[in-house]
């Protein structure tokens, strides 16, 4: 069993914000697989079951709000006995230019509160992550307003391609591995 987690905030008011790009990517993966998300009763999340090649995969959208994402991820991993290395986390990254995708096999959470929560709950940094660029943040804008804000008009024109490419990266991790996926996707900028 593998787990793919898209980070975001629940609720209509957050649906089309930069901070919810992780949700957008797992929703794209679910759409490609023809599966729908259902609410979990054991922990606060929505999940969908699918397969990537020979891998049985659970797609997960935590409903804990970003800053408490670790609770839902930890609960899912325990429930389905998923190892950290079999968990892929997708999240927005203000330090990556909009349209950029960065894959890492492990590492810190940087300034991302959702990742900090996951790292705290899991007590390991050794899981793959797909960072989807939403930056740069304008100097005059505060961080919370920026990440919880909607996409700019020029970004909206490219958003679907960015989400598609991030979904491609997740599928690639399962088909060819994290290292080869890093080599293919980390240099790519969607223009």
Write the layout of secondary structure elements.
Elements lengths: L1 E5 L14 H13 L4 E2 L5 E8 L2 E8 L6 H12 L6 E11 L3 E4 L8 H10 L6 E7 L7 H5 L5 H24 L1 H8 L6
Parallel strand pairs: 1-4, 1-5, 5-7
Antiparallel strand pairs: 2-3, 3-4, 6-7
Helix pairs in contact: 1-5, 2-3, 5-6
The amount of beta strand, in percent, is: 15-25%
Which architecture would the CATH scheme give at its second level? 3-Layer(aba) Sandwich
What's the count of strands? Answer: 7
Provide the residue-averaged pLDDT.
94
Gap between N and C termini, in Å? 35 Å
Number of helices: 6
Helix content: 25-40%
Q: Compute the number of structural domains.
A: 1
- Sheet/helix structural class: alpha/beta
Strand order of the largest sheet: 2-3-4-1-5-7-6
SSE arrangement, N to C: EHEEEHEEHEHHH
| CATH homologous superfamily designation | Peptidyl-tRNA hydrolase
The CATH C-level class name: Alpha Beta
Rg over C-alpha atoms, rounded to the nearest angstrom: 15 Å
Overall body shape: globular
Write down the CATH topology: Rossmann fold
Largest sheet data: 7 strands, mixed
Low-pLDDT parts are none
Sum up the structure in keywords.
7-stranded mixed β-sheet; alpha/beta; 191 residues; 6 helices; Rossmann fold
Structural description of this entry:
The protein has a seven-stranded mixed beta sheet with strand order 2-3-4-1-5-7-6, sandwiched between helices. It is α/β, with parallel strands linked by helices and 191 residues long. The protein is built from six helices and seven strands. The protein has one domain: Rossmann fold. The protein is globular, with a radius of gyration of 15 Å. Strand 2 and strand 3 form a beta hairpin. Helices cover 38% and strands 24% of the residues.
């Amino acid at each position: 069993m593998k787990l793919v987690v898209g980070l975001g905030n629940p609720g209509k008011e957050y649906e089309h914000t930069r901070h919810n790009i992780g949700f957008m990517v797992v929703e794209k993966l679910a759409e490609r697989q023809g599966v729908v998300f259902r609410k979990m009763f054991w922990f606060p999340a929505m999940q969908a079951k699918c397969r990537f090649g020979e891998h049985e995969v659970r797609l997960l959208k935590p409903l804990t709000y970003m800053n408490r994402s670790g609770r839902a991820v930890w609960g899912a991993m325990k429930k389905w006995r998923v190892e950290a290395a079999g968990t892929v986390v997708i999240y927005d990254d203000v330090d990556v230019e909009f349209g950029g995708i960065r894959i890492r096999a492990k590492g810190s959470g940087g300034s991302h509160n959702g990742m900090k929560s996951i790292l705290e709950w899991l007590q390991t940094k050794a899981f793959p992550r797909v960072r989807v660029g939403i930056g740069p943040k304008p100097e005059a804008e505060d961080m919370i307003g920026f990440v919880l804000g909607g996409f700019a008009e020029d970004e909206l024109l490219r958003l679907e391609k960015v989400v598609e490419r991030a979904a491609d990266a997740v599928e690639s991790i399962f088909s060819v591995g994290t290292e080869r996926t890093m080599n293919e996707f980390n240099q790519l900028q969607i223009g």
